[in-house]
Amino acid sequence: MSSRPVTTFEVGIQDSQDFPEDNGSEGKKNQKGSAHDKARRKNKGGAEVINGKGAKNGNSTDKRKQGQKKKATETSNFKEKSISIVVGVDFGTTYSGFASSVKTSSYDRVTKHRKWPSCSNAQEKVPTVVSYNTTDEGQKRLSSWGYAVKSSSEAYTWFKLGLSQTQRKHRLDDQLLSEEISEIKCPDGRSYKSVAIDYLQKLYAYILSAIEDELGEATFSQVAFHFVLATPAGWPDFDRQNIKNCAKAAGFGARESDKISMVSEPEAAAICVFHTYSTKLGSECPLKPESNVMIVDMGGGTVDLITYTVKNLKPFEVEEACVGSGAKCGSTSINRQFLKFMESRFGDQFKNKPQKDIGLKSKLMNGFEDIKRMFTEDADSQRVPFPLEWDNADQYDTDNQEIILTNEELRSMFDPMVKNIFELIQGQVEEAKKETNTPITTIILCGGLAESKYIRFKIKAFCNEYLKTAQVMIPESPWSAICVGATMSGLDPNKVIKSRRARRAYGTVVHRKFEEGLYEERDVFDCPKLGKRVGNVMHWHIKKGDRKLPNDRYKWLTRGFIDVGNDDNGEIEVFSSDLNDAPSRRYHPGVDKIGSLPIDLSEIIGNNSRKRKSEDIVSGFSRKRRIPIQIGQVILPQADSVEFVARTGNKKLGKATFNYAPIMIDGKAVADVDDDDAQPDVWLIPTRANPTSNDENRERSTEDERSGSEYSINDDSIFVPKALELSNIQSSPINLDTEDESESNENGEREIDDQEFREYEGLGEDEELEECEDPGE
């Protein structure tokens, strides 16, 4: 028996002042609001915040105490153990590492880990590589990882890149990667996901073992871990969450009292290098107030850039100057160019070699890795051992069985990626200039490629020509800057970085009053009561580039109501966009559905005492009830997520946290069967794979031409999308109509005091306002 389709509520906005031309997160403040124009925010204790101040309500102190008690209860599990240790984890495409520190320590006490299984020398990182053997039953089983993987075995690496399959292609992405992503090998019956989990399980077990050896068994039993996972900043929210999901499946954060969070790789690198320069160099620090500093993190699979404006030196504080940028063009791009060169020169003699001879852990590739690190602009020809039958003395040394690579040939392998880095730097310079009008004076190189002499030389030469006033700096241990900075972020994420920029827009679909010349005719429909309306309009609660403060609270979109029939549950769809100028229309290829905010009206509809607050409307088919609703949104940097809530009056109707959304078919989540153990687990994948999501947008944008309207009208104020009506879905718009003509901000948002709120809701002085959960820091 099929389940009944879910009711979808659509937001409505009444007049033009409620729908801004620039409706970013920084709305006008200190506006006087009416009872209908409510935007309530909570401080840490749950008390009302009016324009940044505590509530005027006499119960605010009690509510603050209640909020503190609630928060203490929620976090008590984490505090049960007497020692808290932060572990910063850099799960890289080619190498991985970790650093750690006791939670109460300062940044100076972060320890980099340098010992690894099967490695006699101290190394900052371990190879992100695994190998498998075959059981008697024919199943693949992990046999070794990291340094223990032998060059003679069939090794698997670069699988992290396979976790990012949803990212829109950037013109600076490595073209060979997009052509060959399917050729990144996985064992038979395994996926990128399952291989990543296998590797992370080994890394997780070793982290615990190493820290237990250091602390002793008795002390270790009292440790609660906070794992901070560094993820590529340029990847979509879902892909970054996919890495976190793999880490969770591998055990990270699974123990009682443990937890896991994320930080972007360039932000982690920035925290590390800023601390290093500000503390070790003191007054000689090359970073000056009101100057822009660009971090260029060049890893194995990605290059990420982010720019900060230095605001203060003591204490050292920065603000994100503009939205970061990046592309899939890292160290592995050079490897792919080398493999392409080998195939082109030696043809079948190379291509027909077994994987153990030409794979990413082979002696051939290990030899090339050494060349990559030491290669310079004026270096002589380089040689790589490799057995071949090749009769060309300029290309191959038959006596020593070595391939000869000239300086020009090697530069041809580096330069495509180097050119992409130049363009990324230029783009970030232009973005920072638009946002701050402040020149970039320092460029700091981090990541494994920052240790390449050739790349250092080329970037310095480029900056000397293009950015004549900018100095290029390479910090101590640029390779481990990410895991060290991730640990520092877990100790205090806001000690250095005081504000950030939203990397994408988040919003909901609305309908609003029609304005001539602004909208497509097919989105226009008539309402006898409200007049000419336009639907399928995106309302962006926050836009890409909007400034985010560490303690941002819910931002409320108010003055709304929904018309409800027999259904007491429904949802509001939530969307995102990575485009610099977020589209104004829902059916645009740059708009992605990320999920839905559930709406539970069962208590409201079933509560007779609240019927006076709802207006019964007689439609052609059923009686509908009008219920006021407010929608709140906040970005939570530490959780690396965006949160939406809905409420009516003092009753919360729903809450949802997004970075991703499960695939839904006919309203049911699709479970992905794990290749390894055949145990179903719902892996959250982009809703554009959903038949009703973004891929369909382009089709619907041409197919939804109206004959009159896309909406049917059941009475003079109830709008039901025709497509939904045919499926017996009672879909009702949220209408932000108001009789109050007082001034509002661009978003139609208000901050009101408790007295106004009580008057509007009809609450007595003795009736308590229900707490709306604070998102926390």
Automatic annotation (TrEMBL):
Any Pfam family: HSP70
GO molecular function, one example?
ATP binding
Q: Which keywords does this Swiss-Prot/TrEMBL entry list? A: ATP-binding, Nucleotide-binding
Biased composition of type Acidic residues is found at 737-746, 762-777
Give residue spans, biased composition: Basic and acidic residues. Answer: 25-37, 61-77, 695-708, 747-761
Segments of this protein annotated with the region Disordered: 1-77, 681-714, 730-777
Q: SUPFAM superfamilies annotated for this entry?
A: Actin-like ATPase domain (SSF53067)
Q: Which InterPro entries match?
A: ATPase_NBD (IPR043129), Hsp_70_fam (IPR013126)
Name the chain's protein: Actin-like ATPase domain-containing protein
Source organism phylogeny: Eukaryota, Fungi, Dikarya, Ascomycota, Pezizomycotina
